[in-house]
Amino acid sequence: MEPLLRFIHAMTTFSAESWLRLQPALSTQEFMKNEFLLKEGAVCTSLFFIEKGYCRSFHEIDGIEKNTAFYLENDIATNIRSFGSGEKSAASIIACEPVKAIVFDKALLFEAAKHTPEIEALGRNCIRLFAAKQDEFATLFNIYAAKDRLAYIEEKHPQLLQRVSQTQLASFLGVARETLSRIRKRRVP
């Protein structure tokens, strides 16, 4: 759990006592490739700190998967709307390779936060970080053309290009795989 502790210390002040109080809310879970962390239609009751591997969030529309996010090492994966509201998730989260995650149980996390201000602050900071990442990509998709979205990913998130298949990346960028290939070919000097 050392990566999680480093992640926490990078976000907020967190004492050894708060770390001990957080422990009951944490468990380590491993997911095989193509195993769901969250299925569409289920209520999200966890935050997943990705310690190893990566996963993706997607919606299925008319039998076609539309990727909405990728979560790599040291990212928090969740469906924020379902987690916060208790409504059924409109998206799924699935492991794209073997994933080792530290799972925050919502009920136990909220209980610990009631008694420990640092845990409550950690929860707020995790939600802010998650929301900022969602806003970053929402802005990208609302303003830029596909070629500009790809350029942004290349500059700001090059690890995605190394880990994510071209088919999944095309779905994420909102273009056909062939279109993504054409854009990439035009950009090669």
UniProtKB/TrEMBL annotation:
Domain Cyclic nucleotide-binding: from-to ranges: 10-106
Xref: SUPFAM superfamilies: cAMP-binding domain-like
Cited Pfam families: cNMP_binding
Gene3D superfamilies: Jelly Rolls (2.60.120.10)
Domain of life: Bacteria
Matching InterPro entries: cNMP-bd_dom (IPR000595), cNMP-bd_dom_sf (IPR018490), RmlC-like_jellyroll (IPR014710)
Identification of the protein by name: Transcriptional regulator, Crp/Fnr family
Organism for this UniProt entry: Chitinophaga pinensis (strain ATCC 43595 / DSM 2588 / LMG 13176 / NBRC 15968 / NCIMB 11800 / UQM 2034)
Lineage of source species: Bacteria, Pseudomonadati, Bacteroidota, Chitinophagia, Chitinophagales
